[in-house]
Design goal:
Blueprint: E1 6-12, H1 19-26, E2 37-44, E3 49-51, E4 55-57, E5 66-69, E6 72-75, H2 86-93, E7 98-105, E8 108-110, E9 121-122, E10 147-151, H3 172-178, E11 186-191, E12 200-204, H4 212-219, E13 230-232, E14 235-242, E15 256-257, E16 259-261, H5 271-289, H6 293-297, H7 312-323, H8 347-357, H9 364-385, E17 388-389, H10 391-397, E18 411-412, H11 413-418, H12 453-456, H13 465-476, H14 478-495, H15 513-522, H16 527-531, H17 538-556
Parallel strand pairs: 2-15, 4-16
Antiparallel strand pairs: 1-2, 2-3, 5-6, 5-14, 7-14, 8-12, 8-13, 9-10, 10-11, 11-12, 17-18
Length: 557
């Protein structure tokens, strides 16, 4: 591990393209069918050269970064840290299409100068869910620090909004312009750590570029912040990003072999989006590094690729590489057609074995734990399937509910969960008043009024809470999940129909000029991806399919 500031990437351009050709390509809305260069390393600010076959760029807001505070502007990627200017120029010279975006951060506050007595308290989740499936508990779970809610008041605000910023976490200036009818906007006061470590508070919801003195005055107009001390002003950051349609599904660039990109350089915003891309780009760079160049070029080397039905990371990458961005991109459940099957509580079941097959997960204990989870779920489901009654018996169990259909068909406890007659109190593990504050526990746990599962199947109470949650969730969405599975299979068939990378779309008859332009920019790798490009018509897809089939038949003749 070597720490250092990277000044530039090193490229081997031993191709037929000269410098002038590369510059022309940079000004055109097209993507090369084959790479124009190969990455060979990086150069540090110190002048030191590090040779590397694979390089992952995660520049964040540092690529051509410029900070704005009021009318002041200066090169920087983050307060107190230098921007990367040379790298931005090298990417443009290599032919990459660059765009400009903006993000921001709110001022930081001294929590010891805040009056919390006038603000509603916002408590964390209880019970707490670990980020990882290999953990059962979270440190300090019963010692969480509360957040607080306050709001802005009508104020005179300096407006500077020339570069497109995030739609879903907008600056205060954007809120004032877009929602001029509102007299106030919510602010969430979030401690940046435990009280014994820091008193700094992050006021979520008021990122801005106002002058420092105006920020201080503005803050003291907010309820509870009348005497607040600002420890760092908020600021906006403008930065360069690469058109993500320049990327493959592995997050390797199409123009430069061995160069991968992740995070805000791809037009996204948000910590989770950046971390997910970094994971995938790093995994693929590592997998490619341990295989020969010939294996990588022939696609025989293993790769980690995810499609839309695999999870939210697959949705993110597919949206980026097929549609591009015109504003900072964030992931939402609404973006996924498969959100009912892409749940947080089944990520291990969906993805861990795929990672293990690629050598990315090698911990035998982790795989053994996954085996145990699958076995426990199968056992719990079998337990529910074994309790079978006729409708009139279930009606009695339901307290005489007339909603039970007397169709003479025996139904299992699992069937009754699927129909909503039996419920699971998923907060059962949070009832201990010694460990959980009462305000953490929702007042309304039951929506159906039916009995809990353990009242009908006593052994159910012995099943671990996590397993019960998983099985009940699968049962509740059973009909939808079955339909999604059919749709996912159709989707995967379309994704398996590969498109050659070197197609000259201008030779495909019937395609409009718009379709030729968009397909030439994106260069989709499958017919499924081509269908998802905005502006590509069903007729265009059929023409493309016919063209590819004719070419393959001619080549095999």
């Amino acid at each position: 591990m070597l720490a250092g500031s990277v000044a530039d990437i090193l490229l081997d351009r031993s191709t037929e393209l000269d410098e002038q050709a590369l510059k022309r390509l940079a000004s055109q809305d097209s993507t090369l069918a084959t790479s124009s260069a190969t990455v060979v390393g990086v150069r540090l600010e110190s002048g030191e050269i590090i040779r590397a076959r694979k390089v992952v760029i995660t520049t964040g807001t540092f690529l051509g970064g410029e900070i704005h505070i009021g009318l002041k502007a200066f090169p920087s990627g983050r307060k107190g840290e230098a921007a990367s200017i040379g790298l931005s120029k090298s990417l443009k010279d290599a032919g990459f299409r660059l765009g400009r975006m903006k993000t921001g951060t709110p001022p930081r506050l001294d929590g010891l100068t805040i009056d919390y007595s006038r603000m509603p308290k916002q408590l964390g989740d209880m019970p707490v869910s670990p980020f990882s499936f290999i953990h059962d508990s979270v440190p300090h779970a019963n010692d969480q620090v509360a957040c607080y809610q306050t709001h802005t008041t009508p104020a005179s605000i300096h407006i500077r909004e020339t570069i497109r910023g995030p739609r879903y976490c907008p600056s205060l200036e954007s809120k004032v312009k877009r929602f001029s009818e509102k007299e106030s906007h919510l602010i969430w006061l979030e401690p940046e750590g435990l009280p014994e470590h820091t008193s700094t508070v992050y006021p979520n919801g008021i990122s801005n570029t106002m002058p420092e003195d105006i920020q201080q005055k503005f803050l003291r107009m907010i309820p509870g912040l009348e005497n607040v001390v600002m420890t760092q002003p908020g600021y906006g950051v403008e930065y360069d990003h690469v058109d993500p349609r320049e990327l493959k599904r592995t997050l390797e660039t199409k123009r430069v072999t061995g160069l991968y990109m992740a995070g805000q350089i791809n037009g996204t915003t948000g910590y989770e989006e950046a971390a997910a891309q970094g994971l995938l780009a790093g995994a693929n760079a590592g997998l490619a590094a341990v295989h020969s160049k010939a294996e990588c070029e022939s696609q025989e080397a293993p790769q980690l690729t995810l499609d839309r039905s695999d999870g939210y990371l697959g949705v993110l990458i597919d949206d980026l590489i097929t549609r591009g961005v015109n504003e900072p991109y964030r992931v939402f459940t609404a973006r996924s057609e498969y959100r009912l099957s892409s749940r947080a509580n089944n990520a291990d079941l969906r993805l861990t074995r795929r990672a293990a097959a690629l050598g990315l997960v090698r911990d035998s204990a982790r795989l053994a734990r996954l085996d145990t989870v699958e076995a426990d779920m199968a056992h719990a489901q079998a337990m529910l399937e074994q309790v079978v009654h006729l409708p009139h018996i279930w009606e009695a169990q339901m307290g005489g509910s007339r909603r039970v259909v007397r169709d003479g068909v025996r139904k299992s406890a699992l069937d009754m969960i699927r129909k909503g007659f039996l419920i699971e109190d998923l907060w059962a593990g949070a009832r201990d008043p010694e460990n959980v504050p009462l305000e953490h526990i929702p007042k309304a746990r039951k929506l159906t009024g039916g009995p809990e599962i353990s009242a009908i199947v006593p052994a159910w109470a012995d099943v671990p809470l996590d397993i019960r949650q998983r099985v009940v969730t699968e049962a509740m969405y059973h009909g939808h999940l079955r339909q999604l599975s059919t749709e996912a299979n159709t989707f995967k068939r379309e994704e398996s129909m590969r498109l050659p990378a070197d197609i000259d779309y201008s030779k495909v008859r019937v395609l409009s000029h718009e379709e030729v332009d968009k397909l030439s920019i994106v260069r989709p790798d499958t017919f499924g991806a081509a269908k998802r490009i905005d502006g590509i018509t069903p007729g265009g897809i059929l023409a493309l399919l016919k063209y590819v089939r004719q070419n393959r038949a001619a080549q095999s003749a």
